[in-house]
Fold:
Amino acid sequence: MSATIIDGKASAARLRAALAEEVAEFTAEHGTPPGLATILIGDDPASAVYVGGKQKACAEVGIKGFDHRPAGDASREEVLALIDELNADPAVSGILCQLPVPDHLDGVELTNRIDAGKDVDGLTIASAGRLALGMDGLRSCTPAGVMVLLEEQGVELQGAECVVLGRSNLFGKPMAQLLLGANATVTMCHSRTRDLGEVCRRADVLIAAVGVPHLVKGDWIKPGAVVIDVGMNRLESGLTGDVDFEAAKDVASAITPVPGGVGPMTIALLLRNTLQAARAQRRATFPS
Ligand SMILES: Nc1nc(=O)c2c([nH]1)NC[C@@H]1CN(c3ccc(C(=O)N[C@@H](CCC(=O)O)C(=O)O)cc3)C=[N+]21
Structure:
């Protein structure tokens, strides 16, 4: 048996096409498009590629991009002042501070300066708290993208055994919360988990986000499981995930490739969040 290769690139393209229509309607109705401000501090080449991709995607769906690039030695006060300015700017619906930030700055502090209504990354204390409490709100883009892929595959999450490898604030924790919200049985694993392979073998849905190339072996996968690879490891041989894809595809029923799986969905969900934020801001400003 060979697994279905989940085409995240195609899903993301469909989502962007649908969003382009919704953005056009929003813009016609309100006279101004939704706006997304990105903040990239310094000139890390990998981060510059990601932020460039986000800006390009905005332009393609009709969202106005604001591309801020403070120098790598920008002071804390300088960046906080920039965020305050964007928080107050009605043309800016969403704000994203690209992580990681240089060592002399605190990414958690900077992220939390973002107005909760403009937190399109879903990473502020308010957004994380709303998710944990089962309230509506802006969701972290990569986990939200994974939920879209699982839904499109028709994966039944209610009562399913879902195992999440990795407990980051950016991905693992919000992923687990979204799965819980869909009534899955969720197990979280991390670097101190004993018998990782044993736990993984229980999973109907196995989601890996640890940043260790090919950590997940073929015999860690239950036959027929759905495998989602969130790893983005840049090796000399190219970009590779956390799953031994060649071995996994003979065991799983469906699997995401790297690249072309979860990555493109992250950017599409960022656009969706920006539109969601813009709509909520209009509602708050002009109650009907
Ligand atoms: N505040 C913040 N929010 C983020 O969402 C955020 C961040 N910081 N820091 C870095 C990570 C990483 N990330 C990716 C987005 C898209 C791809 C993506 O499109 N990947 C393509 C390949 C890209 C390539 O070839 O390099 C793919 O998987 O097919 C990857 C990684 C967002 N991040």
Summary: The longest strand covers residues 35-39. Residues 49-50, 53, 96-99, 121, 141, 232, 239, 258-260, 263-264, 266-267 surround 5,10-Methenyltetrahydrofolate (CB under 6 Å). The radius of gyration is 19 Å.
